[in-house]
Amino acid sequence: MKFQFPKSLLLVNTLAVGALALASCGTPTAQTPTAAPMATAMAEPTMMAAPTAMAEPTMMAAPTAMAAMDGNTVADVAMADDQFSTLVELVIAADLPDVLNGPGPLTVFAPTNEAFAKLPAETLAALKADTAMLKDVLTYHVLPAKVTAADITGMGGKGTPETANGAMVNVTTIDGAVYVNDAKVIKADVPADNGVIHVIDTVLLPPDMMGAATIGGVAMADPQFNTLSTLVTLAGLGPVVKDPAATLTVFAPTDEAFAKLPAETVAMLMADTEALKKVLLYHVLGSVVTSTDIAGMGGSGTPETVNGATIDVTTRDGSVYVNDSKVIAADIEVGNGIIHAIDTVLLPPDMR
Fold it and tell me: Which domains does the chain have, with CATH numbers?
């Protein structure tokens, strides 16, 4: 049975791939501080430059009335694989143009049924009830170019390609695995005549829906937190910051903050998981503390971190400081807490 859609949208913009050197980036089987913190395991690809122009998806009538492209398209592959039945159902429900059945080339990051099952029930219900929102989410999983795993791992381990939605995704690699935002590629390079499929374990949420995401998911979607996301993953703390039931405040160092650390300190943390956990958890509070809360403390306070040690929170000249680190973007609200981006990595008292 052909997976048929109206023929309208031709994704013809080609992404220009920029190559960067990446040290030991394995081929998987498979980030402006406005939203952000951590995640689960990536390896580091540099993606291509964003397309210069892209047609918006347009609504068409009855998908069943359009002829499918001959051959084995991305749509055919998805229809033939039971693990994509939820994805197929939602693509049809969204009444999308001929994206998956069109001539391409394209790359689809395809969430499995299990990936959709991880979404909160209310989020999935909202998507099914709002066709425009559903289209926004689904086209966020499509790149208007064919990008293989080899292309990704050869691009330097990170990149922010533009999707058919018009928003960027943050592609990184950690410990040999490719991540798209906080979604791990669990199987790469499933071939189709009009492109390629990469199977992912988490549904991607566009930037305008990041308020529903977790701290970990927001961090992994923001390129300024790539180093933080990688270290959180390596330390095994992804589940902590991605727990939807948690209530946390994270003081999130940017990549530039980590770059200020001495090389030997970074090497030591990478080699000592327990020391790395200790440092990372020193950036986390077990409750939500906003910049307004801090101002209400009289401009100073010593909250206890999840690490067990306290931090000094002060306001000076209208800015909030945590120890000697300045908050450069405050009050980034997400589903399980709040993020404050900071310009310096916090070191626990016994490591200074």
Answer: 1-223 (2.30.180.10), 245-351 (2.30.180.10)
* Of 289, 265, 277, residue with least CA distance to 241: 277
Q: Which run of H or of E encompasses 326? A: strand 325-334
Sheet holding 183-192, edge to edge: 142-143, 106-111, 195-200, 183-192, 177-180, 171-174, 158-159
Residues in the chain: 352
Residue type, 14: T
CB atoms near residue 139 (< 10 Å): 24
- CA 39 – CA 202 distance, rounded (Å): 12
Burial class (CB within 10 angstroms; exposed 0-12, middle 13-18, buried 19+) of 264 = exposed
Rounded CA Rg of the chain: 21
Q: What is the pLDDT of residues 114-159, one digit of tens each?
A: 999 998 888 889 999 999 999 999 999 999 999 988 887 776 667 8
Provide CB contacts within 8 A for 4, sequence distance 6+: 63, 64, 65, 66, 67, 68, 75, 101
- pTM of the predicted structure, to 2 decimals: 0.75
Q: What is the DSSP letter of 328?
A: E
